[in-house]
Amino acid sequence: MVDETHKPADLRPAGVPCREEPPHARHRSRHWHGRRSDGTVADRQSSDSCYAALDLGTNNCRLLVARPTSGGFRVVDAFSRIVRLGEGLIGSGRLGETAMTRAVEALSVCASKLSVRRIAGQRLIATEACRSAANGDAFIARVEAETGLKLEIVDRETEARLAAAGCTPLVDPSSDGALLFDIGGGSTEVVWLDRVETRDGGPPAAIIRAWVSVPLGVVTVAERHGGVMVTRDGFEAMVNEFRPHLDGFVKAVGPHDCGRLHLLGTSGTVTTIAGVHLDLPRYDRSQVDGTWLDALQVGCVVDRLLAMPFSERVANPCIGAERADLVLAGCAILEAVRRAFPCDRLRVADRGLREGILVELMRADRVWCSGAYR
């Protein structure tokens, strides 16, 4: 697999005018409502109607269920579990039986949560592990047979767009845009992102100037280089493996002033860095999401993590046993991004693909156009 850099005209703000329904609307799953003869959706504003987004990645299984509000949405249920679906994939090219069983167990919990909600629309996606595994399609069929959930394996362009849609509200409107990076378990998306205020009363929409998807993430990098005992030389080897994948993207972005841009990170790596920087006694999304860090602060946390023994990483409340062997691989990917784009500021996003799915579903259903949530 190779990374691809794009400077597209086809990743426009999705569904900004109220009258337009974006192409991805065909993926919506509808259960309880129908359309009136005038084309509007019946019962859309029911107080108990929810939208659902599920993201099955190489490392995590995550679900969000939310209701529209004025200019956004309110989360009413959530689920997250580390399943390491891509464990061993880099060597075998296949999803392992134990990993698939872990994922199915987590997805069964998600199915139970969805079954007790009145779901107006949902999108359930799988990303790099299922994309690249020889038995990815067979696993998706198994998931449907055992849980009733119909997962959709999305391409990298869709993954980049959804991350952008979810994180756009955190782009500083006074800047020239942001370099968004989403460090996943099996791939990393980097997006040159602007925002535009919408005319439908919903969140700002994403303008994507260029993007790249690199088939390396925390699981794949950690499996290649090791994640338990990481020396400074080993860390640099990780950075050096990832850094050349950004060369085409840097050329696509062209001349730019990093002082007028900022980094915007969405992943367990950057939220962990923020939690460690803040010395949180336990992880707290309300303190992490939207946090600004300067370049010196990021570098200090990375150095601190490199100096930590593995046991100390395990004991840290913002890392824990499930991430302790992955966090330095993520930091190496972040360092490669920082060297390619030496911006002064990094904003941390505890949001991403799932929030992007929710925004696209709600915008496609014109929930904010109705005025009911204004």
From TrEMBL:
Residues 1-43 are annotated as: Disordered. The lineage of its organism: Bacteria, Pseudomonadati, Pseudomonadota, Alphaproteobacteria, Hyphomicrobiales. SUPFAM superfamilies: Actin-like ATPase domain. It comes from Ancylobacter defluvii. InterPro entries: ATPase_NBD (IPR043129), GppA/Ppx_hydrolase (IPR050273), Ppx_GppA_N (IPR003695). GO terms for molecular function: pyrophosphatase activity. Residues 1-10 have a biased composition (Basic and acidic residues). This is Exopolyphosphatase. Residues 25-34 have a biased composition (Basic residues). Residues 65-362 form the Ppx/GppA phosphatase N-terminal domain. Gene3D superfamilies: 3.30.420.40, Exopolyphosphatase. Domain 2 (3.30.420.150). Pfam families: Ppx-GppA (PF02541). PANTHER family: EXOPOLYPHOSPHATASE, RETROGRADE REGULATION PROTEIN 2.
